[in-house]
Specification:
The protein is α/β, with parallel strands linked by helices and 258 residues long. The protein has one domain (9-251): Rossmann fold (3-Layer(aba) Sandwich), CATH 3.40.50.720. Helices cover 46% and strands 14% of the residues. It has a seven-stranded parallel β-sheet with strand order 3-2-1-4-5-6-7, with helices on both faces. The protein is globular and about 50 Å long. The N and C termini lie far apart (37 Å). The structure holds NADP nicotinamide-adenine-dinucleotide phosphate (NAP).
């Protein structure tokens, strides 16, 4: 044990590490990118909305990588583009995700099911595969996937069968990659948020009935924000989480504790 009581705080420092953050044009991805950069990492921010990621890259001194993660060629180009400009990534945070159908399970169109799995599950797996050689060469690495409490419990009133399946899939992927890659000191974890405010949930939070429903189902009295989720991500990608791998960490204000 270190005699310096401040030593554990320094474990959050990311100086000298290259990080890739997807979904970095809004919501949680922006918050994660800013935090990792503030902790010292060189951060590549990935999304389709070029103006937004370019502005963020300017702000944090990082790299903007415009890519549609549902396009195979663009998906496969992300990690090489980062490696060329910033160096091989040691940190990958898969934040990009979406719900493509609001239909009940029995009516979800097959195309929406494929898109949901493609963006929420296949893209994180593919980016992990492509980041792996760089992490192995560095002798360390950390991957964090962003899933959802809907990968763990059903959410009454908001049908999301394929979304739930894709998010639960991330937890299975997490334990398997963690075990396969542990010998290279590459850690793989998932953060499963409950509801927090973002472009996709603002309407729900602002709606009178929606807001009341969220408050009724969330034991903690405060409203969730992206900043409430970022701490878990920083912990898991940094040396502060160096003995944690294969886990799904739930950050939900107590939603699933009931
Ligand atoms: N908000 C919540 O309450 C909540 C709860 C649980 C889990 N989550 C999860 O948390 C993550 C972030 O959610 P958020 O609420 O912050 O969402 P958001 O603000 O809607 O952000 C989604 C991000 O994904 C990117 N994206 C979407 N489709 C893409 C594509 N085809 N290719 C590349 N990037 C794409 C978007 O960028 P472009 O549109 O610019 O491409 C955007 O940056 C998601 O995985 C979501 O499932 C959210």
């Amino acid at each position: 044990m270190s005699a310096d009581p401040r030593a554990p705080l320094r474990l959050f420092d990311l100086t000298g590490r290259v990080a890739v953050v997807t979904g970095a044009s809004s919501g949680l991805g922006v918050a994660v990118a800013r935090t990792l950069a503030a902790a010292g990492a060189s951060v590549a921010v990935v999304a389709r909305r070029r103006m937004r990621i370019e502005a963020l890259a300017d702000e944090i001194g990082g790299q903007a990588v415009e890519a549609d993660l549902l396009d195979e060629a663009q998906l496969d180009g992300v990690i090489p583009a980062v490696a060329d400009k910033l160096g091989g990534p040691e940190i990958l945070v898969n934040v990009a995700g979406n719900i493509f159908s609001r239909d009940r399970a029995e009516d979800e169109p097959p195309q929406a099911v494929r898109q949901t799995l493609g963006l929420n599950l296949v893209a994180p797996l593919r980016l992990s595969q492509l980041a792996f050689p760089h992490m192995r060469a560095a002798g360390r690495g950390a991957v964090v996937h962003i899933s959802s409490i809907s990968g763990r419990v059903g959410i009454p009133g908001i049908p999301q069968a394929s979304y739930a399946a894709s998010k639960a899939g991330l937890s299975g992927l997490t334990s398997e990659l963690a075990v396969q890659w542990a010998r290279h000191s590459i850690r793989v974890n998932t953060v499963a948020p409950g509801f927090f405010r973002s472009e996709i949930t603002d309407g729900l939070f602002d709606d009178e009935k929606g807001g009341a429903w969220l408050r009724r189902n969330t034991p903690l009295p405060t409203e969730g924000t992206a900043d409430d989720v970022v701490g878990a991500v920083l912990w898991l990608v940094s040396d502060a989480g160096r003995f944690v791998t294969g886990q799904t960490v739930v950050v939900d204000g107590g939603w699933t504790a009931r």
